[in-house]
Amino acid sequence: LNVEDLNRAAAQLQASHPPAIANTLEAFPWERRLQIWQLLAPQTKGAVLIELYEEVQDGLIAESVPDDLVKAVSGLDIDDLADLYKRLPKEVRTAVLQTMDEQRRQRFEAVSRYPNNTAGGLMDVDAIAVRGDATLDAVLRYLRRTRRQQGELPEHMDAVIVVDRASQYMGILSLSDLVSLAENRIVSEVMNTEIKPIPAMTSAKKVARLFEDYDLLSAPVVDEDGKLIGRITVDDVVDVIREEADHTLMSTAGLEEESDMFAPIIPSAKRRAIWLGVNLVNAFIAAWVIGQFENSIEQLVALAVLMPIVASMGGIAGTQTLTLVTRGIALDQVGPSNIGRVLRKELGVISVNALLFALTVAAMGIIWYQNINLGLVFASALTINLLNGAMAGTIIPFALHKLGIDPALAGGVVLMATTDVLGFFTFLGLATFFLL
Amino acid sequence: LNVEDLNRAAAQLQASHPPAIANTLEAFPWERRLQIWQLLAPQTKGAVLIELYEEVQDGLIAESVPDDLVKAVSGLDIDDLADLYKRLPKEVRTAVLQTMDEQRRQRFEAVSRYPNNTAGGLMDVDAIAVRGDATLDAVLRYLRRTRRQQGELPEHMDAVIVVDRASQYMGILSLSDLVSLAENRIVSEVMNTEIKPIPAMTSAKKVARLFEDYDLLSAPVVDEDGKLIGRITVDDVVDVIREEADHTLMSTAGLEEESDMFAPIIPSAKRRAIWLGVNLVNAFIAAWVIGQFENSIEQLVALAVLMPIVASMGGIAGTQTLTLVTRGIALDQVGPSNIGRVLRKELGVISVNALLFALTVAAMGIIWYQNINLGLVFASALTINLLNGAMAGTIIPFALHKLGIDPALAGGVVLMATTDVLGFFTFLGLATFFLL
After folding, report:
1. Mean pLDDT: which of A52-61, A420-429, B72-81, B226-235 is highest?
2. What is the reported pLDDT for B13?
3. A43 falls in which pLDDT band (50, 70, 90)?
4. Is there a contact between A211 and B140 if contact means CB atoms under 8 Å apart?
5. For residue B1, what pLDDT is reported?
6. Predicted pLDDT of residue A2
7. Do A301 and B294 touch (CB under 8 A)?
8. In 3D, which of B95, B84, B218, B81 has the Cα closest to residue B160?
9. CB-CB: which of A282, A353, A420 is closest to B272?
10. Separation between Cα atoms, residue B279 and residue B271, nearest integer Å
11. Distance from CA of A91 to the nearest CA of B (A)
């Protein structure tokens, strides 16, 4: 990239929306990222930073001058700043706290009190609250006055929150009702009391489920005493849902969802080595099982040719069941009360397919090796390992979940170990017993 | 379940929110589902139906009396009804159309004109539009009048849409601005013109991305002439995001995201047979490769013991790269301009790990079989197959995407075929050349 290109790119980027800039930055390797980063205005930097994967955030923060960072993050929304705060260098944190006025600092402390992945960590603390005994007219006047004084109302405001004298949550007055009902109505008569307030320590995952099930645009957050402390808006919930999905998908390959595509090689290699190492142990266990049957393989080398088929087909069948059951667990649709039925259904499905594929492989084995008994053993072992796959695919995620381990992360590894070991053992064992 | 239990369950369910009822229904096998289904009131049935997986919808629709179905779906929102419509029996469709008044029928036809997975299919057609030359006061009076006449305003309304005399989209007037700015302001002076209208044929996926990037609560939808035809609200977008994530995850195991956990056995088995069949073909190709080296295995049976390790480690390394690259493609972060860099980085990462694991397996091979040359061949083959995995994991999703095939669906299968075939070939080939 020469200077002219860079300037053109910078002009183009500055005109872009921060999420688009973030997406572009993530698509570039580090040396270009830094070139682009340096061309962004400080406020843009802040808005871009919060959209990046954490691994990319860390890299850019490390490469930025403290003064620049203070300027970049000082203008952020409180909840975004709270997310980013712990990733900033100490001197930047101190400087950021000093730039805050009293109100902002109080709000920041209110959000920072709760972990990121809770309702408290997700909330905005700029909720507009009105009293239940006010008239709609009074609320309208209050909103106009607030707007005149502060220049703006909170972002994504679709409702005001109704509280009593003690700041206890009472209900929600939607702006849609506010603009369309008679101005002399009393707030408490027209407010929506069906929306239950969300306790601050509710998990982000549960918050997302509530927003989905009740089609919410925003929801009030209360502390342990039922006192209103903020509101969650749906745009933050959308991010939670996306991150959750990303987490599940990346977990199945032993990756972290905040991974940077262009992370430096050594740390990337380190993290992936763990996953490769776990799988190497599994592979050696399976190899050890094969090793127990060396004599059989020496006598009938066809066993070595066919055994990977038995192992891999069990793994495939198991993965299908595992994926379905893991989704069911995530949706609370699979539990102790119906795991037995799920297992029976999965075994039923795989039995039908086992019949089909056993006939196929028996025929192929017989044609290939002109050995009927080999074909029968091959088919029997395949049938057993398909059933084994369905069983392991049901029980493993259920058991992992019971043990508090994320089935999306560990399920695949444990399943493949099971279907490999049992697949090799069944095929080689049956062959040794019946053929030799 | 006896009658008493059923009645208690029914009372409990009726009091529940439809998404919760849907979730419960999906967790039950078919015979219980039908028992519960029959206990639900018709309106509840409609609200529950739209929350179910399509496969479950179809089953319950097939088991319902037409009259009941008409009652169940007649009260649904237009966009929900349009989603469900094509799944209903013909007589129910006719009856539903007949229950509609003229306005509802027109709206229904407007939504039905567009495929489900487009902005047009997602939109609500009850958008409230106001003229740019009106005052805020006039808008407020209009909204109050509409509310008096119709009893309600559209759900999830956070803004009214501003159009000109020819119904051309001009901008958005948020209710937040409407309630807080002076009543004598002119709409066109205070409206937000930054929100671009979404053409009706925009894909649902792209709509979701727009909502995420711009933190939208709602967005206007226009036809090919720029005429306002509806609005999309964020609650429908949340469903799109969830379904998209579900689709990706289920695809990686060759499953459909609308799969019912308790689908009847024969159709389930049929669908899964395709995936198992594809994998069986792959496994036989890999077996054929092994078959070419039967003589080598007969001479040195250790090859049969160690070869699955080489194949599976390549698969694991490849899956990690594949997952990262597939995510990058979905986010438009991987394309022709940087695929070379991604490949170089992935090869860099795997080279570091190849060194580590080659040393490990060489040591283990030598200790196990007291054969230094075998250890060296084992390590070399593992190194080559790890590099192969990283290369295949980068190139396969990129190539599939270019060919218009979903990398999430086909990537894993093609990758495993590659790493198995090349893993067996490399190890057995090197062994034949250097050891025998």
Report:
1. A420-429
2. 75
3. confident
4. no
5. 55
6. 66
7. yes
8. B218
9. A353
10. 14
11. 31
Chain A's closest residue to B215, CA to CA, is A235
CA distance B198 to B201: 8
CB atoms B261 and A324 under 8 Å: yes
Reported ipTM: the value is: 0.91
DSSP A188-204: HHHSB--SPPEETTSBH
How far does the CA of residue B290 sit from the closest CA of chain A (Å)? 6
B242 chain-A contacts, CB cut-off 8 A: 212, 241, 245
Amino acid sitting at position B172:
I
**Cα A1 to Cα A12: distance, rounded to the nearest angstrom:** 15
Confidence of residue B42 (pLDDT cuts 50, 70, 90): confident
Handedness of CA A14, A17, A18, A19 (dihedral sign): negative
Residues of chain B in contact with residue A272, where contact means CB-CB under 8 angstroms, are: 317, 320, 349, 353
pLDDT tens track for B65-109 = 999 999 999 989 888 899 899 899 999 999 999 999 998 899 899
- Put simply, the answer to whether B253 touches A319 (Cβ < 8 Å) is yes
Given a contact cutoff of 8 angstroms between Cβ atoms, the answer to whether A418 and A394 are in contact is no
Distance CA A133, CA B56 (A): 47
Residue carrying the six token digits 């509802």: B104
**What pLDDT, on the 0 to 100 scale, is given for residue A1?**
55
Nearest partner of B311 among A388, A365, A290, judged by Cα = A290
Q: Pick A349's closest partner by Cβ from B272, B277, B291.
A: B272
- Residue among A259, A304, A258, A253 nearest A279 (CA): A253
β partners of residue A413: none
| Chain A residue with minimum CA distance to B158 | A158
Instruction: Spell out which residues of chain A touch residue B291, defining contact as CB-CB under 8 Å.
Output: 305, 368
| Contact yes or no for B183/B139 (Cβ under 8 A) | no
Q: Is B248 buried (19+), middle (13-18) or exposed (0-12) by CB count in 10 A?
A: buried
Residues from chain B that touch A318, judged by Cβ atoms under 8 A, are: none
What is the separation of C-alpha B392 from the centre of its chain, rounded to a whole number of angstroms? 24
Whether residue A411 contacts residue A367, with contact meaning beta carbons closer than 8 Å, is answered with no
H helices within B50-101, ranges in order? 54-62, 66-74, 78-85, 90-99
Helix (H) or strand (E) holding B255: none
CB A387 within 8 A of CB A351: yes
- With both helix axes pointing from N to C terminus, report the angle between A302-330 and B407-435 in degrees, rounded to the nearest 10: 150
Q: What are phi and psi of A98, to 5 degrees?
A: -70, -30
Q: How far apart are CA A126 and CA A199, in angstroms?
A: 17
Contact check, Cβ <8 Å, A217/B235: yes
Around Cβ B293, how many Cβ atoms within 10 Å? 24
Neighbours of A242 (CB within 10 A): 18
Q: Would you call A332 helix, strand, or coil by DSSP?
A: coil
- Picking from A217, A260, A369 by the largest number of B CB atoms within 10 A of its own CB, the best residue to mutate is A217
Distance, in Å, from the CA atom of B91 to the CA atom of B191, rounded to the nearest integer, reads 46
Angstroms from A126 CA to nearest CA on chain B: 14
Domains, in order of start, for chain A = 3-112 (1.25.60.10), 129-251 (3.10.580.10), 265-435 (1.10.357.20)
- Kindly report the length of chain A: 436
pLDDT-above-70 percentage for chain A: 99
